[in-house]
Design a protein that fits this description.
Blueprint (H helix, E strand, L loop, with lengths): L1 E9 L6 H13 L4 E8 L3 H11 L5 E5 L4 H5 L4 E3 L9 H8 L4 E4 L4 H4 L6 E4 L3 E2 H8 L9 E3 L4 E3 L2 E2 L2 H13 L1 H18 L2 H18 L4
Parallel strand pairs: 1-2, 1-4, 2-3, 4-5, 5-6
Antiparallel strand pairs: 7-10, 8-9
Helix pairs in contact: 1-2, 1-7, 4-8
């Protein structure tokens, strides 16, 4: 059995948690035995529970509430799903990586800076509009703002990940053992090397010096 989850301490629409439920439904239809673990609580939990019943997968989705023992929790899962409509920097993604858990994430805002695509995670371009997502799930994503598109380096209208795209990548990752093991190993290394405070401080100071240098009249 494969286990994956959304580590979302606030169950709100803009986190796109309903995408993970659609993913679970699609995996189940394909005969793949997977369980979705949802950590956290919030205002749309009832809506999410209703969606699982509507899709007939209530036995495949576990609402665990707030978790205090994260070490034990991360050892239970194989993949971390990050499905927000906006995310300046995915701290929960970094946490997952530090436990060797590969991350599936959207190319939005600062996510590509938190997870190295193809190395310790799989980045996907969001393609589903908020209206399309509501038709699929009945859940509204209340986010009337633009988001940053790091691929084209511009602001754009918010979109969410396609659950079909996610399913394709999940199946590929879980069936190719060598790829999964490599990403899991890389996840440890990436979080260790890039989330070091002393290294961050040096890089930040260098960035400030370069900014001052480039903006100082010669």
């Amino acid at each position: 059995m494969y286990r994956y989850y959304e580590s979302l301490f606030r169950l709100v629409g803009l986190k796109g948690i309903s995408i993970s439920i659609l993913i679970t439904h699609e995996l189940t239809k394909k005969g793949i035995n997977a369980t979705l673990l949802i950590a956290g609580d919030g205002e749309i939990r009832k809506n999410l529970e209703e969606l699982t019943y509507k899709l007939g997968i209530e036995d495949k989705v576990k609402f665990l509430g707030y978790q205090s023992d994260m070490t034990s929790f991360y050892k239970k899962i194989d993949i971390y799903l990050s499905t927000p409509v906006t995310e300046p920097f995915g701290l929960s993604c970094i946490e997952a990586l530090s436990y060797g858990v590969p991350v599936i994430f959207p190319f939005v805002d600062g996510q590509p800076e938190a997870i190295k695509n193809g190395y310790c995670g799989i980045g996907l371009k969001p393609t589903i509009s908020i209206d399309e997502h509501k038709k699929l799930t009945g859940i509204d994503v209340d986010f009337p703002h633009q988001v940053y598109d790091p691929i084209n380096d511009q602001l754009t209208e918010p979109k969410l990940l396609s659950h079909i795209d996610c399913v394709v990548e999940i199946i590929h990752l879980l069936k190719k053992t060598s790829l999964y093991e490599s990403m899991s190993k890389n996840a440890f290394q990436w979080s260790k090397e890039n989330m070091n405070y002393e290294k961050f401080k040096i890089k930040f100071e260098d960035a400030l010096k370069n900014t001052v240098k480039n903006n100082t009249p010669s």
